Fold:
Amino acid sequence: MGCPDASSTEAAAAEPEDIPRFYPIGTPGKPWTDDERKQWKESRKYHRSYKEEVLDKLDKLKSNDALAVVQYGALSHNPQRYPLFAVKSKQWKDDKPTLLVTGGVHGYETSGVQGALLFLETQAAKYTEQVNILVAPCISPWAYEHIERWNADLKDPNRSFKKGNETEESAALISYLDSLNVKEWACHLDLHETTDSDKTEFRPAKAAEEGSTVEGSTYKVGIIPDGFYLVGDSEDPQLDFLQAIIDGVEKVTHIAPEKVICGESVVKEGIILFPTKSLGLCGSLSLGLCRGITGGTYATTTEVYPDSPKATGEICNEAQVAAIVAALDFVLAPQTEDIPRFYPIGTPGKPWSDDERNQWKESRKYHRSYKEEVLDKLDRLKNNDALEVVQYGALSHNPQRYPLFAVKSKQWKEERSTLLVTGGVHGYETSGVQGALLFLESLAAKYTSQVNVLVAPCISPWAYEHIERWNADLKDPNRSFKKGNETEESAALMSYLDSLNVKEWACHLDLHETTDTDELEFMPAKHAEAGLAYSGEVIPDGFYLVGDSENPHLEFHQSIISGVEKVTHIVKDENIIGEPSKSDGIILVPVNTLGLCGSITGGKCPATTTEVYPDSPRATDAICNDAQVAAIVSGVDYVLQH
Structure:
């Protein structure tokens, strides 16, 4: 969004000859003529594809059981190229409150668009039981393709959300929202960025087009805040709501430290307030900001800074998702006094403090020996003629106790494809570790003449010893396999894999379990740490697979199911952990955007996450280990036969 103009937009008086040229179009100090405005439009360049980066992603969402993709308009100057879409809950109910997320009001602010899409791909479906979901991910598609703030008519869509001042983009969205007859808005987040191009392109262009000076003088370069911040409504601040978003986002990226942002004093770190209704900001469409339209309470404009040396495009997208999730969780959470205690640490309804996080870590108990159950078995493999044991790292808080090992083919050949097996990403999932070791002990050698074998059997050894999902830093390693979000465990493995320069991956199996401790320990701890209520989990009884919705490889998955069902029973539920089954025991999720270990090979080769249920009355530890081995063998056999 950049900084809103809270002051008058009238040009400051200055003689044209006193104004140096700061923009290539027009005469300094004189408003642009129609010819000069046309010159600006004709000089704009196409930089990226709305179809490839937005519409193709929306097409993939059409198969989502919880969400529907709806066209609500099109830009008249090129309706085939620029259709306007929203995504909404399929099960829309008038008696539910509605979440509104808007992105791409300013087309050049990439994470506003991609963050909205990432939320739809990864988080939206799980909220559809509580609220109606409504997301307009790219309101200004011409500007998205041309990386501009203005639309094709040299108008700023984010100053047009008020009667009599509409652009095509805002008018189409306002009309669509009116047609839905929403009775109650849960909250509205309008996703934006403040970028260096604000000061290098848009601000100069705006001042030149107006023939104006800026801040009472000729054009000046503004200060771009380094970090995430929020713009709330000075007439209805809802600071607790805004603070909850800041608390959620600072787990992903840094908050702007400046005391003054966009000329306004911060009311809390990363929070400024503007009279958004009178400015006609997109945020004024929502709850609490334009009461005459929606009558709601909670709304804000998010601002990330993608040009920060501390940020990446992925981090910015994740920050937008974190903002949406934190806002929704705040709005949906019962009052603290209404949340019963379900976990011994912390205050129900309040995120853990650093002291409470330390309390969790200090209360963890040592249950089993990484040395005896893993390292000693690896030592015995050192005598194997076909395999070699390689140390690729160690956990810094205790490197002697927690060295990190992989096992690979001794006869490694670059022209061969490589089988990757990973275990113990979640340390408490025993058969992920022991199944990987059993494969190494019993069957791996026979495949070394056909593929390079590579197995990392225990990625998170601290968690293995303490039987925990989180690592020692209260982070989930299986959400950390993407740049900018790494844990020690994932960073070490990714660095090692990069060093091998694998030319072709045969397949990847990441070995996991779904256990009763998910319901009894980890999920309660996760919700307590975030300050959320918790109402329990449904644990699937049996074996299932989690594939990549971007690259399903369903025949590969079905081959594994066929092999494993000879050893143990398969989950036959229509929905598994909230996702619809594609067939018995198979669900698909966007593994790359979630940062799962299953994404580590890059998504082209067949890859899957296995899940056994060791607490089933029909299973034993030995059966679970055998099921993991059967999954590996079935997966690699399928690849070698195809």
